[in-house]
Each structure stands twice: as structure tokens, then as C-alpha cells.
Amino acid sequence: MVRAVISEVPRTRHATGVAVTVDLVIFTIRADRLQVLLVERGKEPFLGRPALPGGYVRDGETLNDTALRELSEETGLDGRRLHLEQLKTYGDPGRDPRGRVITVAYLALVPNLSAPVAGTDARAASWIPVDSVDFGELAFDHAVILREALELARSQLEYTTVAAAFCVEPFSISDLRQVYEVVWGFSLDPSNFRRKVTGAENFLVPTGKRTVPEIGRPAALYRRGTAQLLFPPLMRSANISQVRTRGG
């Protein structure tokens, strides 16, 4: 069960009166669509508006500590075992009507999760397909954060092995291809995709096992290899001409 809360703890302020928060962009793939975890704010400002989950940095916490705590509170997952990385720092003076608040956004990529449950400071929490998000309704500057996180996720699939973070091991080549198709928003040629990912250095490791489908041929199963960078890279521009567009 995924639990999502907006942490309303006393602000950590310096002499300048600046507060520091962490916001999380948590992507997963559910029902063949890229989805993001959003909460409905239960307090002002932006009462009732959708927002990214997050909270204030507590005294004695590092930014990574806060991100790991928030991810644990909002998904029940241990971020040390998932793909979690710092996206960017956002500090425009008017981004929060309560005062000067600087937020550090983190990107989390997780396998399919169950439906979320809202905490005490959020009216509701839910997985929302990214292509259904009303960006104009998002609280604070979360529309900017979400757009930049989405582009980062898409570009990282070209140069890194992060796509496997969406897959529950062991997984098939078809499972992995679905990740690329959902995140990029278009379909890929199965034969070309298989050739490229199996030829990439230390991207995939065969488990020696196969699926036993009710219909169709068994598929070989893999786990993620040790490589973090994808070599050779798998470029969107080299694949988009082959495909039909998906929603997203």
C-alpha cells in the first residue's frame, strides 16, 4: 500500500528567513501508462489543488535524508534500493506565497505500485497518468518541476540503464521495451530493440529462466547488469521514424 503525505513540520530557517523543502517526482508504469504520484493539498496555500508530495528538511537532516524519509513515508519503499536522484534546485522568490522557500526536487523511478492512501495533511493521493495531468492546476511551481523531471527521465533512457528501474526482476525484453515505449511515447521495432539492448555492455544479464505464458512462446528472462551508462546509447531520434505514436 502506498501512503502519501505532505509533511507540515516546522520550517528549518536560517538568519535570512529561507526555508528548505524537498519535493518528489515519483514515476511508475501502471496500466501501460507512465504515471506520477500526486496529492491533493489539504491545507492552504493551494487548498484542494494537486501537488507533488514532499516536505520540509528537518534539523539535522541532509537533503538525501529528507528525500529518503519522504519516499518511505509516501510509498513505503526504501529509496536506497531504488533509483532516486537529485533533479534540480528551485528558488524563485515567488514560488511559495508563505515566504521564501527553496525546494530541491528529486526524481524517483519505481516498479508498479499499489494505489496510494492519503495522509493527514493531504485530502487524497493517487497515481495520475502523466498525459492526463492538468499542468495549469498544479500547486506552486510543480508544473515546471514535473515537466523537467519528465524530460530528464526520457533523456536518461537514451544514455543510461535506468529503464530497468521500472522493471521487477526478472523481466523479459518485451517488459523492458514497454518501458521505453511508455516513457518515450511511441512504439519500437521489437527486433531492433532486442538487438540493441542485448548488445549493450553489461546492461542485461540472462537468468537462464524463461516465462511460461498461456499463449505464445516462452521468453528469456533477465536481470539488470552492473552498467550504469548505456553503451552504445539508444537514441530516440534514431527510433522515432520507425514507429506509431502512443498516448503521452
Verbal overview:
The chain is α+β, with helices and mostly antiparallel strands. It has two domains: 2-144, Nucleoside Triphosphate Pyrophosphohydrolase, CATH 3.90.79.10; 157-242, Winged helix-like DNA-binding domain superfamily/Winged helix DNA-binding domain (Arc Repressor Mutant, subunit A), CATH 1.10.10. Helix content is 21%, strand content 29%. The protein is built from four helices and 13 strands. Strands 2, 3, 4, 5, 6, 7, 8 and 10 form an eight-stranded mixed β-sheet that branches. A hairpin with an 8-residue loop joins strand 4 and strand 5 (50-51). The longest helix has 18 residues, at 142-159. The chain is elongated, with a radius of gyration of 19 Å. The protein starts with a strand and ends in a 24-residue tail after the last strand.
Strand content: 25-35%
User: Distance between termini?
Assistant: 26 Å
Radius of gyration: 19 Å
The tally of structural domains comes to: 2
Q: Could you give me the name of the CATH homologous superfamily of the largest domain?
A: Nucleoside Triphosphate Pyrophosphohydrolase
- Average pLDDT across residues? 87
Tally of DSSP helical segments: 4
Shape: elongated
Largest beta sheet, briefly?
8 strands, mixed
Classified by CATH, the class of the largest domain is: Alpha Beta
CATH architecture verdict of the largest domain:
Alpha-Beta Complex
The CATH topology annotation of the largest domain reads as Nucleoside Triphosphate Pyrophosphohydrolase
Strand segment tally = 13
In helices, the fraction of residues equals: 10-25%
Structural class: alpha+beta
Uncertain spans, ≥5 residues at pLDDT below 50?
1-15, 243-248
What pattern of helices and strands is seen along the backbone? EEEEEEHEEEEHEHHEE
